[in-house]
């Protein structure tokens, strides 16, 4: 009898602990299937990363039940975590792998950096709002995402000491492509960057660096991002 009770307790414990560590796994897998695969994202590395990284840990606790919805969400300080599909699309466009070193401008919640950390060798991420930068850095430490390196600075200037990069991803909208970011890209490397006016529909550019003098630009789609700001706030 005692044995049966003990076995039952063990199973109950296992069941509860599995459920509590990942209560959103089902939502996450359907997010990947319906919002991402169904819209044409095929890179398995991207799909796997989006299945692995727990998006609900990157949104404010009171919004965790909306974390797998098909939309951006507020993360405080007037900023947003991008819609899951846009994160997947931009990540796929970078065409990166386990050898790559990637620069991200606009750390925000840290979610995009976390997705990249599953796929590439090193992620360098720059955020202009100090509180967001500190919060994201703490999250990376807690989640043991040790290949993400954070910097609180104006990302317009990139992160020169860590350059050149195989890819650059800008997750805020710039009025024009910042020249330092092109300079810090390797020849053959790519940059995904929304370009346009603040709070209007912007163009998502995919830029390829052909040589030190030449880039090729392709417009991928229309997007709406928060603006890349220039004054160091806080
Ligand atoms: N990649 C983020 C999305 C963040 S929203 C995520 O996954 O959550 C865009 C972020 O860009 C905001 O946090 C904003 O503060 C930041 N940002 C705006 N201008 C910037 C600049 N010049 N340099 C660095 N970060 C900037």
Compact overview of the structure:
The protein is built from seven helices and nine strands, in the order H-H-H-E-E-H-E-H-E-H-E-E-H-E-E-E.
Topology diagram in text:
Blueprint: H1 2-21, H2 25-36, H3 44-52, E1 73-76, E2 79-81, H4 84-94, E3 101-105, H5 111-119, E4 122-127, H6 130-142, E5 148-152, E6 165-170, H7 179-183, E7 185-195, E8 202-209, E9 215-223
Parallel strand pairs: 3-4, 3-6, 4-5, 6-7
Antiparallel strand pairs: 1-2, 7-8, 8-9
Helix pairs in contact: 2-3, 2-4, 3-5
S-adenosyl-L-homocysteine binds at residues 79-82, 105-106, 108-109, 111-112, 126-129, 132, 154-156, 171-172, 226, 228-229.
Structure write-up:
With 234 residues, the protein is of the alpha/beta class. It has one domain (2-223): Vaccinia Virus protein VP39 (Rossmann fold). Helices cover 34% and strands 24% of the residues. The chain has seven helices and nine strands, in the order H-H-H-E-E-H-E-H-E-H-E-E-H-E-E-E. The strands form two sheets. Strands 5-4-3-6-7-8-9 form a seven-stranded mixed sheet. A two-stranded antiparallel sheet has the order 1-2. Helix 2 packs across helix 4. The chain starts with a helix and ends in an 11-residue tail after the last strand. The model has no long low-confidence stretch (mean pLDDT 94).
Features:
binds S-adenosyl-L-homocysteine, Rossmann fold, alpha/beta, 34% helix, seven-stranded mixed β-sheet, single chain, two-stranded antiparallel sheet, 9 strands, 234 residues, 24% strand
Fold-level CATH name: Rossmann fold
Biggest β-sheet: count, sense, barrel?
7 strands, mixed
CATH architecture label name: 3-Layer(aba) Sandwich
Radius of gyration equals 19 Å
Number of DSSP strand runs: 9
The CATH fourth-level homologous superfamily: Vaccinia Virus protein VP39
Q: How much is the average pLDDT?
A: 94
Shape: elongated
């Amino acid at each position: 009898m005692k044995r049966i009770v003990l076995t039952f307790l063990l199973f109950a414990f296992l069941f509860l602990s599995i459920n509590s560590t990942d209560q959103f796994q089902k939502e996450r897998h359907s997010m990947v299937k319906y919002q991402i695969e169904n819209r044409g994202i095929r890179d398995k590395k991207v799909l796997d990363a989006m299945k692995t990284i727990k998006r609900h840990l990157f949104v404010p606790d009171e919004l965790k039940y909306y974390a797998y919805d098909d939309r951006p969400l507020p993360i405080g300080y007037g900023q947003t975590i991008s819609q899951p599909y846009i994160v997947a699309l931009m990540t796929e466009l970078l065409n990166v792998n386990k050898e790559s070193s990637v620069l991200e401008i606009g750390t925000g919640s840290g979610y995009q950096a976390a997705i990249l950390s599953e796929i590439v060798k090193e992620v360098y991420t720059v955020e202009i709002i100090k509180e967001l930068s500190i919060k994201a850095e703490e999250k990376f430490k807690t989640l043991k995402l040790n290949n993400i390196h954070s910097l609180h600075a104006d990302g317009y200037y990139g992160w020169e000491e860590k350059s050149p990069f195989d890819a650059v991803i800008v997750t805020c909208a710039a009025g024009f492509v910042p020249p330092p970011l092109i300079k810090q890209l390797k020849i053959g490397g790519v940059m995904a960057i929304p370009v346009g006016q603040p709070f209007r529909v912007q163009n998502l550019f995919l830029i390829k660096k052909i040589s030190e003098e030449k880039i090729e630009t392709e417009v991928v789609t229309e997007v709406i991002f928060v603006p890349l700001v220039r004054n160091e706030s806080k």
